[in-house]
Every structure is written in C-alpha cells, then in structure tokens.
Amino acid sequence: MGLVFPGPGYAQDSPIDTLAKVNRDSTSVINQAAKRLDPPSLSEIISFAKIFWAIVFLVAGYFIIRFIGSILSKIAEKSTTYRITIKGIIPVFNILGWVFI
C-alpha cells in the first residue's frame, strides 16, 4: 500500500462519512459559539470587592474635590486681582474632578 495523504484531493473516506464528519464539526462549532455568547453570571460581574472599592473611591474623591475647592476658594478671597478668575475655575475643577473619578 502506498502513502496515505489525508486532506483535500486525497479523500479516503466515503462521501457519507465526510458529510457526517462535517456535520459533527459544524455542530461543535455552533455549540462553542453558543457558549461564548451566553451572558456571564451576575456574581462574575458584581462582587463585594468591586462595590467596596467603588464606594471607597467615590468617598475619597468627594473629600479630595471638596478640600481642593475650599483651598481654591481661600486663595481667591486673599487675592483681589485673581478672585473672579479663581472663583470661575472652581466649578470647572469640580466637574472635571467628578469626570475623572
């Protein structure tokens, strides 16, 4: 018996066996795609650690923004030449601070 080359052009299987193999392969591909498209469970998305750290960052961000805003306000009250400019920057800083948090 000569060399056996499995692959296109060297078919050793009958057409029915090849069709059955293609059908099994396509079914397994469909099943794998369906598993990937299933939504993750809620426990994988939301955990206690994620909620805890989100609250920590929000509270820390609140106090940092409030502290820097009060410092800018005190600087504005002491500087008569830049008072309106600094008072105008405070709301911009507050908005940008919350955007980055």
Structural write-up:
The chain is mainly alpha-helical. The chain contains 4 helices and no strands. It has helices spanning 15-37, 42-45, 48-78, 83-100. Helix 3 (48-78) packs antiparallel against helix 4 (83-100). The radius of gyration is 33 Å and the shape is elongated.
Low-confidence stretches: none
Shape: elongated
Counted by DSSP, the helix tally is 4
Encode the helix/strand succession as letters: HHHH
What does the main sheet amount to?
none
The percent of residues in helical segments reads over 70%
Fraction in beta strands: under 5%
User: What is the total tally of β strands?
Assistant: 0
Mean pLDDT: 81
Q: Report the span from N to C terminus.
A: 73 Å
Structural class: mainly alpha
How many whole angstroms does the radius of gyration measure?
33 Å
Please describe the topology of this protein.
Layout: H1 15-37, H2 42-45, H3 48-78, H4 83-100
